[in-house]
Amino acid sequence: MREVVVRRSALRMWVVALVGVPLVVIGTDVLTRRRLTNALRDMLFRPEDTQIFEPRDVIWAWAMLVVGVLLVGLGLKELMFPTTVVAADGDGMRLKLSGPLRPVTVVPWSAVEDIGSGSVADEGDRLPVLWVRLFDPDSIPMDPWGARWIDDRTVAILASDWDRSAVRVARELTQAALAATPPPSDADLGTIPRSAEEDPV
Fold first, then answer.
1. 170 and 115 in contact (C-beta within 8 Å)?
2. pLDDT above 50 (res 151)
3. What is the enclosing helix (H) or strand (E) of 113?
């Protein structure tokens, strides 16, 4: 069977890297010669109302620089080496639910009851999710990274930054699960005894 591999969207990660660039530029400027910030200050204030830099401005500059570097680094890393968030083969699924630098969560097909897609509310927005209903919820971390429990046996994985839609991923995973499940044999279905087939006397 063909393996299913879902990664983070390179385009979305590129946007994340671009968001971090202005933070790096401004933070660096404030901490060094302040050419940009001085020019901006001269444009916004009259000479007699010139604002003076305070220690808190330096603290904010360091915070912006650190956050900017993290965003740029994360964006470039994901752009060049995108993280696999969901994968599936004949044995089951591998889900990235334990956070950065942690091993993936392996869920065998025998532990999966159903797979689907939908959306969840988050601060007024509707976010796409892939949901997985399990026979054994203990196979998933109690506090999953990038996911949430929506009932006792169903975990919803946020899919807004994936390289394809949650609807498509749910369909591909369902097909993978069906391909990995052998058809029932006569032994599994059981046979009806001949005596039971005959009309009772």
1. yes
2. yes
3. strand 112-122
